[in-house]
Amino acid sequence: MVGDAENAEHALVRGRVLRPDVAVLDVRLPGGDGIAVCRELRSQLPELAVLVLTSFDDEDALLDAPALRVMCASRSRAPI
């Protein structure tokens, strides 16, 4: 099953309804941010795997962000 969301709030609603195995999020979302959405979804769905994408220019700062270090099982600098 595949679902999409228009903004951060919609992503949380869709997550509760669809109960996905995997979520693909951008760090920057309309109406919020992907980190907050990731935290909330993972609190509701602890087994959820999350792929976080971003277009941030400062990749080192992003990959070292404390919020991401806590949530990420692994990180990659490779382009997708």
Account of the 3D structure:
The chain is of the alpha+beta class. The protein has one domain (8-71): 3-Layer(aba) Sandwich (Rossmann fold), CATH 3.40.50. Helices cover 41% and strands 18% of the residues. It contains four helices and four strands, in the order αβββαβαα. It has helices at residues 8-18, 34-44, 59-63, 66-71; strands at residues 22-26, 28-29, 32-33, 49-53. A two-stranded parallel ribbon has the order 1-4. It has a two-stranded antiparallel ribbon with strand order 2-3. A hairpin with a 2-residue loop joins strand 2 and strand 3. The radius of gyration is 12 Å and the shape is globular. The chain starts with 7 loop residues before the first helix and ends in a 9-residue tail after the last helix. The mean pLDDT is 79. Keywords: Phosphoprotein. This is Response regulatory domain-containing protein. Pfam families: Response_reg. The modification 4-aspartylphosphate is found at residue 26. Residues 1-80 form the Response regulatory domain.
Sum this structure up briefly.
It holds the Pfam family Response_reg. This protein is an alpha+beta fold and 80 residues long. It is built from 4 helices and 4 strands.
* Domains, number: 1
Radius of gyration: 12 Å
CATH topology: Rossmann fold
Helix segment count? Answer: 4
Quaternary structure annotation: single chain
Strand residues, percent:
15-25%
CATH homology superfamily name: Response regulator
Estimated structural class = alpha+beta
